[in-house]
Here is the input.
Amino acid sequence: MISEGSGAKMLIGTTESERHPDLSVYTEAPPEVDVWSIWRPAVVIEIISQSSTKRDYKDKTEDYLHGGAGEYWIIDQFKGVLTAHTRWRGQWRTKAVKPGQKFATPLLPGFAIDLKRIFAAAKATRG
Here is the structure.
């Protein structure tokens, strides 16, 4: 299941706050009760805007780690890169993926993200 923007939230227990990722990918059905306190996305995705850069790269990185997201991807059209944060020994392991490279995750078997196509589509919608 994929959820966009205000349709999803993630409660962050360490800060007693909540985050609303641009996209959330869930690999399990939601629980029948207390959905947001226990349901965690496999992948959360933030798409950089000029006003969100600091929040997406700094603040949200720790929140999503402590909140239990499986992975955290930052898609930055200005830098032309996807920064993929994957869990490793209780921390994020970070990898930069550039156009021309594809990125796959074991959390989403059979899925690979093609940045060249994503950035081309984004450019086409901007005019």
Notes: The mean pLDDT is 86.
